[in-house]
Amino acid sequence: MAKLVVDVMGGDLAPQAPVQAVLDAAAKELHTEYILVGDEKKIRAVSHSFPVNVTIVHTTEQIDGTDEPVRAVRRKKNASLVIAAEMVAEGKADALLSAGNTGAIVAAGLLIIGRVPGILRPALAPVMPTFDGRGVLLLDAGATMDANEENLRQFAFMGSYYSEMILGTSRPRVGLLNVGTEAGKGNALTKATFPLLEKSNLHFVGNVEARDVLSGICDVLVCDGFAGNVVLKLAEGLGLGLASGIRSTLVSSFQTKLGALLVKPQLKHFFHRFEYSEYGGAPFLGVNGGCFKAHGSSNVRAWYVALGQAQAFVEKNLLGKLSEAFLNLEEV
Prior knowledge:
The chain is of the alpha/beta class. The protein has helices spanning 16-28, 40-44, 69-75, 80-89, 102-113, 149-165, 188-198, 210-213, 225-250, 254-272, 300-315, 318-327, and strands at residues 3-7, 33-38, 54-58, 95-98, 123-124, 127-128, 136-139, 173-178, 203-209, 220-222, 281-285, 290-294. Helices cover 45% and strands 16% of the residues. The protein is globular, with a radius of gyration of 20 Å.
């Protein structure tokens, strides 16, 4: 039985969205236990009844988006995120989910849950939408700003494993983010990483330029946290801008409104590919327990998808398999 602990105090739509998502999931996943950490009064205001597989751990303290992450995790001992992380560290829960302060989630993962033996630096791994609808797993998206080549090699392995086991990708294609596709291109980090990935047993497809990422050229994109965070936020801004521009154009005249009616089903399907709620949460891979960061604006659907990902993470024993693999890292 999977035990998932949810910090319901973080995120723009907290606690309503995470609580409702848990209630929806609990009604279908009767053998999964859900633990809600947060203000009990606000939690119970969402629903009059809770099933037997949902429990509440009360606290009114929370970590805000303006808090300095490490300091908040160390000082706010009764914060919902801290309590949730401690439950994972103590084995009382298998995985935590939060839509709160990203830096605090990373800090809680490192300081409270700890790393998988053999993993040098964990990585935040969100799925970025692509034009072909497959999505690409990006890591690192901001947890390790100054990475070395061995960090990137481990990121590639963890990303490939997660993509195959949880996302269902057969033999994931791994790409290295770079300024050119040639093997000799890039800075000292990418030049040192390329041969490590090339001689690995991963399906390495070489260097990938940023302009090709959204075309679906690879399933796993590896880079340091600084570059990854820039790419992620640029893609988010591009998606929002394109959607806004297309919608405003389609209502600019009678002719375009008429045309919009004709292509409405196709447009709906197209925009659905880039809907963040369908991609769930970003796993924090490399910590010694399940840890998922949901989008700050996660609605009920996004939370529901994230809960499903966390459940799969636990039931498929991804953590155990990763831990076992990294005990013999030289064979990877």
